[in-house]
User: What shape does this take?
Amino acid sequence: MMQAVAPYVRNLDPRLKLAVALVLGPCLWKISVVFAFLCALVLFAILKPLAASQPVGPKMVRSLVFYVLLWVGIKIVLDSLTGVPLTLAAMAAFDLAVRLSALLLLGLTLALSTSARALGLAVAWAVSPLVGKERAWRLALSLALMIHFLPLCLSTMANVKEMVSRRCPGYGFWQRLLIIPQAVIRNMGQKTWNQTLAVAGRGLEGAEAWEPEFVWTGHDWLWAIVALLFIVLMLLA
Amino acid sequence: MIRLTRINYAYPAGGEVLSGVTLALGKKTLTGLVGANGSGKSTLMALMAGLYTPTGGSIKIDGRVSPGSEKQIRSMCRLVMQDADLQILGATVEEDLLMGHKRTDAATNAAKAMADRFDLLEMWDRPVQMLSWGMKRKLCLAAALLDKPQVLLLDEPFSGLDFPGMREMRRILIENKKAGLTQVVSSHDLECLVDLVDDLAVLNKGRLVLAGPPESVLDHVQAHGIRPPCSWMAGHGITPWDDGDA
Assistant: This one.
């Protein structure tokens, strides 16, 4: 059952997933914390099978947990320093943890269920009437490359860090802080140039290669209505 | 098919990479472009693919001339670069192969047939991150061939491949040759390539120093930083690299 969730979510129209993320994201800060918690649970249930089928999925979820804990910790410390009673500070930190987790789970669900190209095309489709077809495909390409570059950046960063620790085991925090960003930027600079050549070499530098071919099905209608109803209900409750 | 006339090229940052390269490549031939590291092979491949514009001289590919017709040249040629990760833009094998194509039944069937030819059909729905290095290289090659180019340019296709991967790459080159595709393959190592090529072009520090059938140039390649194949050095001429080749 759970294994069937991942392909089902992936097959939904990217425009639906993007629209839900764009509407639900800001709403997560407006709805009650109980509903935000409910959203986080539902999103986690969807994300789990999606993450399982991706090599970097579990790592991304772990990074998310660390990120939430970091901000929760910072909030508790800052609230305590400004004289907020500990009980209230803890409640506010819990509130933040729930909303932030839900928001990050929403972003991760979108990223793991929709390819960079599909997201780029969905955005281009949405803005095409405003900016015109010629600019829309450039936007789609830019966005697809930007999303495509994120895992490349992460892997370059990991490789550079590993290399520095092997080649310069005696270096301290500040020395690493100087070397690692420089090396990553140098590496990425070369990669962006080659990436540009690769895009042109594959004939993807034209509007015809970025024409959206979305198919809006009955399932998309169903989930669009369900999502809309839930968001309205949560806002009104 | 391809005619390079006194090609010069310098990157905007300065320093001439290619100077006075004149070369003619026949239709349906397989040409080996060899040279030591930094000799200008990749730059020449990018020029032939229409990705760069020569700073001097001209490139004529099937009637299209650069400078001027780079876009048309790009539509005729496909360059497969060394770094597969940068060329794969789709999230799955399916999405990457169908990139730039209308998602019709015919296009999907053609992509599936290509995936099958490259033993990638089983990976059709898999995330591309799960592919091995060799599979990623094959995916790039499959995507390039799916565009039905008139000229296929392969930049160091054997680098980083294990023995089975090299055998498979050779099989693909042989099949392309039988299908009448014009191919240019760059390499710094002649060993696994020399028995397949019709002609060799040798670059040294941005200059074309040797060109012609392998038999006519192999005695002179060592002076330009290229090691002749073992069989040639042992006096056996050019022998098949692998007995399993069709």
In short: Chain B is about 30% helix and 25% strand. The two ends of chain B are 26 Å apart (CA to CA).
